[in-house]
Amino acid sequence: MTGDGFGRRFAIRFPDGTAEIGPVVDLRDADAPVIPTGSQLRRAIRAGCPSRPDAPAVHAPAPGRVHAHVSRLASDTTIRTRPALAAVASDRGIETPYDDDLVDSIRSLRALPPAPVDDRELREARRQAAETGAETERLRERVATVRGRLAALRDAPSSDAEALTAAEASLSETTRRLSEVATERVAAAQRLSLLEERARTARDRRDARLRLEDRIGNLERMIREARVDAVADGFRDARHALVSQIRDADGGIDVSETSSDLVDALAVTRIAPVRAPVVVASDVAEALGGPDSAFDRLGAPLLIR
Amino acid sequence: MLVVTYSRRARETLRNACRAHEETVVRRFGRAALLRETEYGAFLACRLRERHAGDVQVERTEPFNEFADAPDAVREAAVAYETRDSPSTPYDRFAAGTDHPKSDAMRERKL
Prior knowledge:
The complex is a heterodimer. By secondary structure, chain A is of the alpha/beta class. In chain A, 62% of the residues lie in helices and 7% in strands. Chain A has two domains: 6-99 and 221-304, no CATH class; 119-216, Four Helix Bundle (Hemerythrin (Met), subunit A) (Up-down Bundle). Chain A has helices at residues 38-47, 67-70, 81-91, 99-110, 119-155, 161-249, 260-271, 282-287, 291-298, and strands spanning 10-13, 19-22, 24-26, 57-59, 72-73, 278-280, 302-304. In chain A, the strands form two sheets. In chain A, strands 3-7-6-5 form a four-stranded parallel sheet, sandwiched between helices. Chain A has a three-stranded antiparallel sheet with strand order 2-1-4. The longest helix of chain A is centred in the C-terminal third of the chain and has 89 residues, at 161-249. Chain B is an alpha+beta fold. Chain B contains six helices and four strands. Chain B has a four-stranded antiparallel sheet with strand order 2-3-1-4. The radius of gyration of chain B is 20 Å and the shape is elongated. The two termini of chain B are 20 Å apart. Chain A binds chain B through residues 114, 116-117, 119, 199-200, 202-203, 206-207, 209-210, 213-214, 217, and chain B through 4, 6-8, 11, 31, 53-55, 57.
């Protein structure tokens, strides 16, 4: 992984038009009047070209998956090692026994779009069924009341012909409306049960989708674990080697005090096929024996800042 | 009330709702839950439906009374079959030559 300067070449162009070529660009002695900040550099590496005229531009291969984990190497660097190692294996193209299954499952999921459940229609049908139900009940009670009043009028000793006629008319009108609403109620209930049946069928497909999504989640987890396992030995060896190199170089960083996250990140960088530059803090570069030595140790294009 | 979810996001919302409102949850089963029949149970069900629409199914459940909700023949067949002498006899062979209903016939008939 060392000495392959050609495969790690990149260029950085500053807003003033000056440019530097690397595999290693040491910004501590660059010609540009304004040196971009670390986060500006990382943004430029991520974004590639074209860039805004007032921002630096980096011409380099697109960052791989691991790049995000090691884009900045400084004494306060933090890294989540397992996701980073999984990304290393992914960038290396390491295959796992679950890859084909995952591709198949994703394809099956794509071929199974969620069956449409017209929720608005269903909601409207529920509302209709409820309203016609309530209205039917109300009218039924009203019919009973009117009928009672009519019976009372008929039984009354002094019959009031006018009131009787009015009550009869009211009864016949209410009965007519009850019959109408009852018909609507039946129709609404039928429509609701039809739509619910349709929703039930649609849910079978959603059920299948959910099972596929869970399967995909499990496979992704297993792939991640297999990937981490595949590079774990290399990572441990790289870490050992780096710790002793840093100690030998005696470059100002005391390894015993070095955050283990930084050493983890350095080891990840070393075992990863990193093509886009990573930003290295000055003291870290010195701890690795200076820019060229740091490049040899890490095997990645470097922007030292 | 039985709430069943049909997507990962709906399932997650249900899980969170169950965690936050234990008093309203009678039982939890992975992606489904039985909510208490209170206004608050209905409130949770409405919220889930509002947020996840077709990915949430809400059904009202009620206890099953085998003496009221199932025909006598069905209930008696179940009792007879569960007390059969040979445990390995499939139901249809057990029912053959008796008055017990055939399983296909029961599948066809709605309650």
